[in-house]
Amino acid sequence: MAAAAEGVSAGPASRARTGSFLQSEEAKGYTLISAPFLYALAMLGLPVVVVIAHSFWTQTYLTVDRTFTLENYRQAIFEPIYQDLLFRSLWISLTVSVLTVALAYPVAYFISFHGGRHKNIWLFVITVPFWTSYLLRVMAWKVVLGYNGVINSALMGLGITTEPSDAFLYNSTAVLITLTHAWVAFAILPIFVSLEKVDRTLIEAATDLGDGPMRSFLRVTLPLSLPGVIAALLIVMIPTVGDYVTPKMVGGTDGVMIANAIQAQFGRAMNKPLGAALSVTTMIAVCLMAGGAVLALRAAVRALR
Question: For this UniProt entry, which segments traverse the membrane (predicted)?
Fold first, then answer.
């Protein structure tokens, strides 16, 4: 009877705890984010699942064979042409990210520490390039850096270059310049936000303790603004690997990237499974490179301190 009494008393208590949880702020929070979470999962997760599924199939013209195979990954990983394109894309992406952050940090630092009451005006000026489409900005650089652009036309007119492969800026260098210009504004904003959160009294304390401007910057400002630097690095690194418009416009044969091969497989080549395998391989490689870059950046900042 005692056990029965305990069971009876435990039932209402359990229901009371359940009811209190459903009425708690935690449950309300879960309810609030459930719809956006499911929407994001459907819009972001399902396409990735579809791409991964396609990567294990084969296709002959319009006929898709859903038999499981790893042949697409064998080609994507071990074929020399795809290896070269992937390594070139990763190198270009990493270089563009480093150049972009290196150019963006001084601008963000100036606006944050010396912008004064004109900070909003400076930020407004930085967003002006966003008023035009990305394609128009790339086309503008094509006029300057393309094979028939201003620079290469002048060089060919002087007899310095005669073939597209010999053009001074019709290669990966032109891709680097164009991508750096296109993404530098995206890097300024997160770095600026991170610098705005730096407590100025900490910098004053470092100065009072004998640190000079450079030492206080390396020991206080840079480490505290590291989240913004990492955000800027990732914001630039991830999309540039998948850019196929810029290489096609200004890159020539030496500036082609892995995204151009993926676009060709989904387009003219009509081999979506191989394109999906290339996409998955590139995603994994970018994740590894981004993680390594973040760890290396943190280690470098700790060493500078």
Answer: 37-57, 90-111, 123-147, 167-195, 216-238, 276-297
